[in-house]
Write a structure and sequence with these properties.
Pathway: Cofactor biosynthesis; molybdopterin biosynthesis. GO terms for molecular function: metal ion binding; molybdopterin molybdotransferase activity. The chain has 413 residues and is α/β, with parallel strands linked by helices. The protein folds into four domains: 10-25 and 184-328, Molybdenum Cofactor Biosythetic Enzyme, Chain A (3-Layer(aba) Sandwich); 28-48 and 160-183, Molybdopterin biosynthesis moea protein, domain 2 (Alpha-Beta Complex); 59-134, Beta Complex (Molybdopterin biosynthesis moeA protein, domain 3); 338-410, MoeA, C-terminal, domain IV (Beta-clip, Beta Barrel). Helices cover 18% and strands 30% of the residues. The protein is built from seven helices and 24 strands. It has helices at residues 10-18, 166-174, 213-224, 238-249, 269-275, 310-328, 382-386; strands at residues 26-30, 43-44, 59-62, 76-84, 98-102, 114-117, 121-126, 129-134, 156-158, 179-183, 187-193, 197-198, 209-210, 227-234, 254-258, 279-282, 287-288, 294-298, 301-306, 338-343, 354-364, 367-372, 389-393, 405-410. A six-stranded mixed beta sheet has the order 6-3-5-4-8-7, with no helix packed on it. A hairpin with a 2-residue loop joins strand 18 and strand 19 (301-306). The longest helix has 19 residues, at 310-328. The protein binds ligand LQZAQKY5 and molybdate ion.
């Protein structure tokens, strides 16, 4: 019997799914693996950076008052009483008419209050002693990189929930995080359904197609920061599917299937939900593609039934699965970033439902412009390779014209 399906608005569907989100735990990862992970604790500076006043140049540390009378033609001669590189400390105090040869990054010796660059000096030896001729007058505190000028102790540097990038890794290293607290990644099961499917390494036969969705979703899960666990594809066989799905549900944080959610004779997912006693949150969304997207829960664990059509599967994942992964990872921002852009071409198809067109955006003459990445059909795969955003076109209109302002959802890297 064909059950009636009532489409619900996209936002309502997202809301229903997000009530089931689970926040993951914190784990520690080596700093060398921290890129792209989500920071699980605020990063607060526990010391100043730099930790000591230091030299920004290769040159000489001196007392600026010793250079007060330096004129171009009457340089000042100072005795060089020490020589330090970065990592070394000059332990005595610099007295009048003394200088210490110092390299970039070395701590400023006691008594010194300025650095002169090597280029403004001439070094010479006399009677076994080292001297330097200073050709430029210096101000108090000239050329000093001060303690805390970069970061002061106690500063909140990076908020928990931020995705770690190489710049953040530099800060983590600066503050001694060999192990970094990060959100544990959710483990998400992937199952493809359909007797027509063959795997990527298998030859095609009449009537068969290659299973592209499972691999596409593995990529989407990786992009979203989750761990995909692929369980292969299932033929259209109820008993086998039931057994597999109920077993897999025990092993993952949640499960995504693709295909078999529509009304066809071999679309088994609705029956599987019934047999498993699943609570169906929705089975029709007022959108294109992906209107058949179905989400259910079994013992509060989410079970996504995404469409078999590649573009519909892709869109369903990004709209309904990705935010849940963001919640699980305790990310500071949930879901795709949205922008306003100018439509670069006409799009005149009418539709009662909202459309999420696989699009491309770019900046042209300082404006964000967007256009479809290819043909707009839910059973097509080509445009997915070029898409860097979804163009959201609200339904119930006569279509859209070049120049119209539209919302785009950025897919990210
Ligand atoms: N009478 C109706 N027919 C259809 C309706 C409807 O409302 N009434 N909805 C259409 C819409 S919209 C979509 S979308 C599809 C969704 O169907 P399913 O989600 O049940 O998916 P399947 O029927 O299993 O497959 C659809 C299509 O996609 C291909 N496919 C399936 N899995 C994969 C995969 N892993 N990789 C690549 N391609 C896959 C499959 O061979 C089919 O061609 O239903 C419409 N029909
Ligand atoms: O679910 Mo279908 O993609 O609306 O075309």
């Amino acid at each position: 019997m064909l059950n009636e399906r009532n489409p619900i608005p996209v936002l309502e569907a997202i809301k229903r799914v997000t009530t089931y989100y689970k926040k993951g735990e914190t784990e520690y990862t080596a700093i060398t693996n921290a890129h792209n992970r989500v920071l699980a604790e605020d990063l607060i500076a526990d010391h100043d950076v730099p930790l000591f006043d230091r030299s920004p140049y290769d040159g000489y540390a001196l007392r600026s008052e010793d250079t007060a009378e330096v004129m171009e033609k009457t340089p000042k001669i100072l005795e060089v009483v020490g020589h330090i590189g970065a990592g070394s400390v000059y332990h005595k105090k610099i007295e009048n008419s003394q200088a210490v040869r110092i390299m970039t990054g070395a701590p400023i010796p006691d008594g010194a209050d300025a650095i002169i660059m090597l280029e403004d000096t001439t070094a010479f030896e006399e009677d076994g002693k080292s001297f330097v001729s200073i050709k430029k007058a210096l101000q108090h505190h000239q050329n000093i990189s001060f303690q805390g000028e970069d970061v002061t102790k106690g500063t909140a540097l990076v908020k928990k929930g931020t995705v770690i990038n190489p710049g953040i890794i530099a800060l983590l290293a600066t503050f001694g995080y060999a192990q970094v607290p990060v959100s544990k990644k959710p483990v998400i099961g992937v199952i493809a359904t359909g007797s027509e499917l063959v795997e990527v390494d298998q030859p095609l036969e009449p009537g068969k197609i290659r299973n592209s969705n499972a691999y596409m979703m593995i990529g989407q899960l990786q992009r979203a920061g989750a761990i995909p666990k692929y369980y292969g594809s299932l033929p259209d066989n109820l008993a086998e599917s039931l057994k597999k799905i109920s077993k897999v549900m025990q092993e993952v944080d949640f499960l995504i299937t693709t295909g078999g959610v529509s009304v066809g004779d071999f679309d088994l997912l609705p029956e599987i939900y019934q047999e498993l006693g699943a609570d169906v949150l929705f089975n029709k969304v007022a959108m294109r593609p992906g209107s058949v997207t179905t989400v259910a829960t079994i013992n509060d664990t989410l079970l996504y039934g995404l469409s078999g059509n590649p573009s519909a599967c892709y869109v369903g994942f990004e709209l309904f699965t990705r935010p849940i992964i963001d919640y699980f990872l305790a990310k500071e921002t949930i879901g795709m970033q949205q922008e306003q852009a100018t439509l670069a071409v006409d799009f005149l198809k009418t539709n009662p439902f909202d459309r999420f067109i696989r699009g491309r955006y770019e900046i042209k003459n300082g404006l964000l412009v967007t256009e479809p990445a290819g043909k707009d059909k839910s059973n097509m795969v080509h445009s997915l390779a070029k898409a860097n955003c979804f163009i959201q076109l609200p339904g119930g209109t006569e279509g859209y014209k070049k120049g119209d302002q539209v919302t785009i959802h950025l897919l990210g890297e």
